[in-house]
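Usage example:
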Amino acid sequence: MENNDLIVISDYLAGDLLDAEKVAVEQRMQADADFAQLFRQQQANVHILRAVSRAEEKARLQQQFKSARQRQLFTRRLWTASVVAAGLAALLLIWFNPWKKTHTPEQLAMAYLESYPLPVERGAGQDSVLEDSAFQYYRQGDYVQAVPLLRKLHESTPEEAQITLLLGESLSQTAQYTEASEMFTLLAKDSPYKDAAQWRLALNQLLSGETAAAQQTLLKISGTSHYRSAQADSLLELLGGDSF
Amino acid sequence: MNLLIFQRLVRQIQNGDDKGLQYVFDETNRYCVRTLIKKTRCDTADAEDIFMDAMLIFRENILSEKLIQLTNIKTYMFGICWNLWRDLNRAKAKWGHPENETERQVFLIAAHDPQMEEDEKDFVLHRMKEVKDALSRLGEKCRQLLTYVYVEERSQKEIAEIMNFASPEVVKVTRHRCYQQWMKHIEQTAISPNGK
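Running the assembly step on the lines above writes:
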């Protein structure tokens, strides 16, 4: 084997010859059988080098892609499991709904009750000492003390709508619902406190457990120009729904 | 394919960063394997095998700068797969089923080279063991250099940068030395089958 020939062929196969040099190699292959055979041998060697290199690289890449695929599969499974778990959790939450509170009519009434005491407008009462004491107890929220005084005032001046309203309120606060309802019913017919009395009557009925009566009263308020019309609507919805 | 993505892909493959090939794999594997099975009715394992061969050819085409732009990576990869499937079947019809992966690659190279004579293909298969043994006796640096030049067809300038040679001329001189060493090992292996 000629060493120079080997170098020339290796350069040819490496693509490291000028065009003229390439032509010279090809012409020599035509003319010189030994050179042509040497060339083919070297070409075969390079083909085998390529084949060996490809086989090794293929094994390496297969291993790498397999690992990557396993990682992707794991991530996909984890993602799927998370989605399924989230879905199940959502279904359970919808099913059990921890936020969905059950309300009794009493609880609903308490939720809609206004803060007490209601403002007291000083009337032209006959017994100012009694009236002062009653209003003072009422303002302080001492309804137990306020009830007998207001009752006394109401008996002496049944036409005083404010006294009647405050008595109703105080009775309601001391859980004397039947008598309280009577007071509010009196005012609900015709008085300056008609709207307030109607609303309080409905709440009082709810507090006393008279849900059907309360619904009737609320129906009278609902859909009118009553200042509590919207609240009456939502209360009716809650009372009529499956909340309790 | 977006030019910027292609340029980044080329850079990654040239730098030996496997993220580039992983991208090609992720983008084209499913499509190529499915289409190959659909068109040729081959089984999944064969389709996956051909796809991996196509990945190697794609990589070589990038490294040798034969591929300088790409419109659709899926159709390009499938084109390689299709040619490989045809070459492999042609080779199998002539020489039977390859015994191992290296032989399979030799089949593919031989079938793809129209200038290769029939007797040369037989010669390649016959010499495979000797050449492979001689390669295993070469130093790592020499083998890497020969791979860069003859397989990946990288330029001498690029090889000088990758392998920290002083200049392309030094690459050339070292390549000559390595090539001669390789040939010497082949001769020795041919004389003594144990390679000693």
